[in-house]
Amino acid sequence: MSKVIIFCAPSGSGKSTIINSLMPRKELNLAFSVSATTRAPRGQERHGVEYLFLTPEEFRAHIAANDFIEYEEVYTDRYYGTLKAQVEKQLEAGENVIFDVDVHGGMRLKEYFGERALSLFIQPPSIEELRRRLEGRATDAPEVIRQRLDRAAYELSFAPRFDRIVVNEDLENAKKEAYNVITEFLKCPLTQS
Ligand code: ADP
Ligand code: 5GP
Q1: What is the CATH number of the domain that holds 107?
Q2: Count of the separate structural domains present in the chain
Q3: Which of 67, 77, 80, 99 has most ligand 2 atoms within 8 Å of its beta carbon, as the pocket-test mutant?
Q4: Nearest CA to ligand 1 atom 15
Q5: Which residue has a Cα nearest atom 20 of ligand 1?
Q6: CA angle, corner 129, sides to 128 and 131, nearest 5?
């Protein structure tokens, strides 16, 4: 039975870098979850590939119909959510579905999927190092970096509630650790399948 892997981390921790190193590993058979969002597509993003881009009205109609496993207003007026039907489609295709969601979404997905899910928290060595990485990545304005750092302190308090914490200090070690933890989890038979 295919499984679910949930990644959470404060922005700048190295989550995308680690996930991108895992996706091409054929033996893991990973597919990226396609969330719904009300934010506008960025750059080359396509509907149905990176996200399902919905209007606020469409998003609210799905909320009313109880179509989401979880949804969050991650930033003001920006909704993100996981549609049950979308995940079921991917799991039924036999793929292990990988999620990149905020900490609240991560907690709820773990609750929903139970032992079928592994929740991983990617932890930066410190807030100072997080600041250096966000500044080094140079994708955000200073004000956005400040907002991300404020939120990071809050998100870090959720780390103990995850199945595993991977500290991303040395990138190669963190990639290896994430790979090993996931491999071990995928091998483990489910008790209630
Ligand atoms: P996230 O997806 O968690 O927001 P990214 O994967 O975009 O974070 O990483 C943020 C920045 O930090 C990127 O520029 C990335 O190259 C860099 N980075 C990631 N891991 C490390 C590490 N272990 N040491 C130093 N820099 C790192
Ligand atoms: P971005 O706009 O940069 O693509 O994503 C912003 C944030 O939304 C990220 O922190 C990401 O983890 C979170 N996110 C993306 N999809 C979902 C989702 O379906 N549910 C929740 N709760 N958060 C999500």
Answers
A1: 3.40.50.300
A2: 2
A3: 80
A4: 14
A5: 14
A6: 65
111 and 176 inside one domain: yes
Q: How confident is the prediction along the chain (193 residues), in pLDDT tens digits per residue?
A: 899 999 999 989 999 999 999 999 999 999 999 999 999 998 899 999 999 999 999 999 999 999 999 999 877 778 999 999 999 999 999 999 999 999 999 999 999 999 999 999 999 999 999 999 999 998 889 998 999 899 999 999 999 999 999 999 999 999 999 999 999 999 999 886 5
CB of 105 shorter than 6 A to ligand 2: yes
Distance from C-alpha of 23 to C-alpha of 80, rounded to nearest angstrom: 22
Q: Are residues 112 and 176 in the same domain?
A: yes
Query: What's the CA gap between 56 and 53, in Å, rounded?
Result: 10
Does residue 53 share a domain with residue 18? no
- For residue 74 the two structure tokens come to 């991650």
Domain that holds residue 39: 34-93
